[in-house]
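Q: What would this chain look like folded?
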Amino acid sequence: MTRHELARWYRSLYPNVRAPRWQALTLHDRTVGAWLWSKREGIVTGAAASAIHGAEWVDDDIPIELIFSCTRPPDGIVARESIKTVGDLRGKKVVLAQNSPSHYFLLNMLVSGGVQPSEVNMVFTEDAFQAAAAFNAQKDASAAVSWAPDIYTLAEAKGKGLVAIAVKAKFNMTTVKFLGLLATNGRASSLPSIITSFEALSAKARGAVSAEVTTAVALSAAQAKGVAAALRQALGKDPEIETRVDPSILGGIKVQVGSRLFDASLKSKLDSLKFALKRA
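A: My prediction, written as structure tokens:
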């Protein structure tokens, strides 16, 4: 069978899964198709699983839910609200990565929807992240295609600047989604404390010890090395040191390890001397 015959007589159900165009698809057909797409490794769950086990209240057009470890999700398209059908893309601008699976996905979708690729203004980028940035920045772009379509809608949430920076910096997609969730829930201001907590949990999991070292002036490389050696000997572990400069301590050093504070600052000594003189 040629590619033309495949596109003419069969419609795409899922990536690499097709069904005859004349066939009225049931929920069972769509569920089996989703399972085949997962290379027979997915576990059907949710309402679709209930239907397979005999539930009669489930509609045929519900989304199919799968538990499946997929490091590369299927390609998808994100469009402006004015785009309702594939035909609405005629004469419109679509951004995507050239010669990529997204490119093939779009070509296949257009042909299946009765639209010739030449009827669409395709604007190519080097990768999906650049396509995301272009879609967000160029309001005349009617759609974008990617393996992770949700990265385009994240910037529409609150704190879109935070997410846009993450997308441009090519952060891991899990990180981008997490930042988007924080922004949407109005918790972006909590990010510094979240990072601190995560670092503490990470250090604990690795068996590392975190220490905050405060001095009145910045430590030299030799001084920092000496402090690290002293802490290593005292703690019995290699410390992860975070240095901080606080001129108010006047001199000396303060070291905090967890809830323990070792205060050898000049300010602390002067305060102790002042207290002793008052008692005298």
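Residues 76-188 form a domain with the D-Maltodextrin-Binding Protein; domain 2 fold (CATH 3.40.190.10).
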